[in-house]
Amino acid sequence: MKSIEEKIIFYKDNLDFFDDGMEKYKFLIDQAKNAKFFPEEYRNETFKVSGCQAQVWLVPIQNKDLLSFYYDSDAFISKGMVTILCDIYGDRNPEEIISSDFTLLNMLELDSLLTPGRRNGVYSMLEKIKEYAKAYNKGN
User: Fold this and answer.
1) Mean pLDDT score, 108-129
2) Which residues face 58 on adjacent strands?
3) Is 28's pLDDT higher than 90?
4) What are the chain's domains?
5) Which residues of 101-134 are buried (b: 16+ CB within 10 A; e: fewer)?
6) Does position 100 have pLDDT exceeding 70, yes or no?
7) Are 20 and 69 in contact (CB under 8 A)?
8) 3-state class of 138 per DSSP?
9) Mean of the per-residue pLDDT values of the chain
């Protein structure tokens, strides 16, 4: 399995392949098509990520020592971003998530691509992933 850093580099290389912002947006939307099945019973306030312009749901799933996520959004850009974040940080030991260098995401240069509102949403998704990792790390 690729490390967190290797996955971020993978997405950076993909985004760098495109010359303009519209092509990069299309890439993000395409990622939404890679989203896994989202069980309807989790589409509620408990799992909603606050701070996002769109509705985003992020549900922690513990499988043995690994933490992964169910996720969804009602907007394609947000769904693409949460798909990328869950691909990078999912199926990992909570300690690995907590101790990772979250500034590595800056390599994706989302600041130049996303509006401030969307950037705040991505930050909120990342905070929720960290929050879940800390909660599940204490449980072990």
Assistant:
1) 91
2) 71
3) yes
4) 4-138 (3.90.1010.10)
5) ebeebeebebeebbeeebeebbebbbebbbebbe
6) yes
7) no
8) helix
9) 93
